[in-house]
Amino acid sequence: MAYFKGDVYSYELGKMTPLEVYLPYDDKKRFLVNKPATTLVLLHGLGGNYSYWGRFTSVERYAQNYNLALVMPDAEMSMYADMKYGQNYEKYIAFELKEIINNLFKMETDREHYYIAGLSMGGYGALKIALKYPDIFGKCGSFSGALMIGTKKNLYELSNWIDPGVSNEYCEEYEIKKALQKGCMAAYGESFTFKEDEDLFCLAKKAKHSKKNLPKILMTCGTEDFVYDINKKYVDYLKELDIDREFHEWPGIHDWKFWDESIRDYINFFVNN
User: Fold this and answer.
1) Domains of the chain: residue spans and CATH
2) Nearest by Cα to 259 from 230, 227, 229
């Protein structure tokens, strides 16, 4: 793989923003590139950034055997929204990123070769963007997706959550709640205003009724993960709507071990048509 890491200017964000890219490359020793590469956009989670996929998984090694190009943009703690107090990360990921990588790297970005996936907050973002703009992405993946983001229940809970302060011992639940409250407040405002186009259940129903060709959906989640119940609920809802999807579960929690296993074991989903 050829590896690029740098900054690009985004008009939607109004600033330079980091980007990491892996491109298939024929070195005549290990593998041959003899057809257009599939392009997969990988979205990071709430506590991470664009570099985390490359740092904490072996996704480059998995991709090089499948002629798969990888694009990893940064979205801060935006909930992949056009934020009330921040930048237009939804439009950046959905529209402008495609233009950028096409112009700079001449990558395959037609719908049949252009896909999106993410973990945790990124899983939510991938599903939201793919369902909202089904003409752009042909496939979508969500690994341990934080699918409660954007729901009335989650926004109500966050609006009423009072920070008790940092305890002497690390508490994952506290850190997640604190980060979610800060991120959702910036994305949706101090009132945590509910919007149907940020709720995955509403978006799935709207997408189904649109009669458009919807992206194929892959979802994975660990059975011990705190987002397992909402993932099961959502995949059941997709089944009820008869939206093309597949769901895989196995023992695991909300961590990089599970996400590495997810991209390793189901990378075929993105390369087989």
Assistant:
1) 2-271 (3.40.50.1820)
2) 227
**pTM, full prediction:** 0.95
CA nearest neighbour of 80 among 40, 131, 114, 43:
43
Provide the β-strand partners of residue 249: 221
Residue 77, number of CB atoms within 10 A of its CB: 21
pLDDT digits over 68-92, tens only? Answer: 999 999 999 999 999 999 999 999 9
Half-sphere exposure of 270 (CA within 13 A, CB side): 31
Q: Which of 179, 173, 175 is nearest to 149 (CA)?
A: 179
With H, G, I as helix, E, B as strand and everything else as coil, classify residue 241. helix
Angle at 225 between CA 222 and CA 230, to 5 degrees: 95
140-192 pLDDT per residue, tens: 999 999 999 999 999 999 999 999 888 888 888 899 999 999 999 999 999 99
Give me the amino acid identity at 95: F
Contact 144, 220 (CB under 8 A): yes
Tally the C-alpha atoms within 13 A of residue 254's C-alpha that lie toward its C-beta: 20
Q: Which residues pair with 117 in a beta bridge?
A: 42, 141
Beta carbons within 10 angstroms of residue 106's beta carbon:
9
Phi, psi angle pair for 170, to nearest 5°: -65, 135
